[in-house]
Specification:
It comes from Streptomyces beihaiensis. This protein has 2 domains: 59 residues, Winged helix-like DNA-binding domain superfamily/Winged helix DNA-binding domain (Arc Repressor Mutant, subunit A, Orthogonal Bundle), CATH 1.10.10.10; 171 residues, GAF domain (Beta-Lactamase, 2-Layer Sandwich). It is built from 9 helices and 8 strands. The strands form 2 sheets. A 6-stranded antiparallel β-sheet has the order 5-4-3-8-7-6, with helices on both faces. A two-stranded antiparallel sheet has the order 1-2. Strand 7 and strand 8 form a beta hairpin. Helix 5 runs antiparallel to helix 9. The N terminus is likely disordered.
Length: 254
């Protein structure tokens, strides 16, 4: 359940937010009953509020009766400072990476215990991936996620290792092995995965820093890392350094 706001004293706003927060990367289409259950609201209350959210342009009702987040709300979300600033600064470097490699290129940040994808560049020749702009995926099963987890606070690491899930047969779910991987990420400056999130897809990622702290991760997804690992790591590190210089030029961050 996404949250329970049916307790006495909860406001209309909090109930409306609970309905919006009922959506996530694994619940992109929800029926009215599912929305009510995940938001912890009585069905009549959910019906009334969902109708207002549809009328206000925050939700869209599909012909089959399911509800999805409206484009207008998605556009508002992209105005958040972290998303807007990083995406704009990283765009030219991501374009260069994609043009040189034709690989899927990711820009991501950590949102609590998940990876939040701010940008993705891909083409027809790219490897199929599970990510999408705005999607949230597990930290432990993705290249950008391993980078961000390696530099996350101890409580985030502990929480993540306490509920490891398996996306494919190759996903690493042993806490001790994950800790070893995170140590290598901090030592070597990059992370890799082999079919941990999607079969047939390998990833490599590096941190983006500013002011001495890791604020994002830049990664690529390719069919194999056997021959091009070093070349891809170097290309990513050069791009990440370019983004860092752009961020440093802005002065103190939020």
């Amino acid at each position: 359940m996404a949250g329970n706001t049916s307790t006495p004293g909860s406001t209309v706003l909090s109930r409306g937010l609970a309905l919006l927060f009922a959506f996530d990367d694994t619940h992109r289409r929800l029926t009215l009953s599912e929305l009510a259950r995940r938001a912890g609201l009585p069905l009549p209350t959910a019906h009334r509020l969902v109708g207002e959210l549809v009328a206000g342009g925050a939700l869209v009702r599909r012909p089959g009766g399911q509800y999805v987040i409206a484009r207008r709300l998605w556009q508002v979300g992209l105005l958040a400072p972290a998303e807007t600033g990083l995406r704009e600064l990283a765009a030219p470097f991501m374009n260069d990476l994609h043009a040189a490699t034709r690989a899927t290129v990711h820009l991501a940040v950590r949102e609590q215990s998940h990876v939040l994808y701010l940008e993705r560049l891909s083409g027809r020749a790219s490897v199929p991936v599970a990510s999408a702009v705005g999607a949230r995926l597990p930290l432990h099963a993705t290249g950008v996620g391993k980078v961000l987890l390696a530099h996350a606070p101890d409580d985030v690491v502990t929480d993540t290792l306490g509920r490891l899930s398996r996306a494919t047969a190759h996903t690493v779910t042993q806490p001790a092995r994950i800790r070893e991987q995170l140590e290598r990420v901090r030592r070597d400056g990059y992370a890799t995965t082999v079919e941990e999130m999607t079969l047939g897809a390998c990833s490599v990622a590096v941190p983006i820093t500013t002011g001495g702290r890791v604020v994002a991760a830049l990664g690529m997804v390719v069919p194999s890392l056997e021959r091009d690992r070093t070349r891809l790591v170097v290309a990513l590190q050069v791009a990440a350094q370019g983004v860092r210089r752009s961020l440093d030029g802005l002065g103190p961050g939020p």
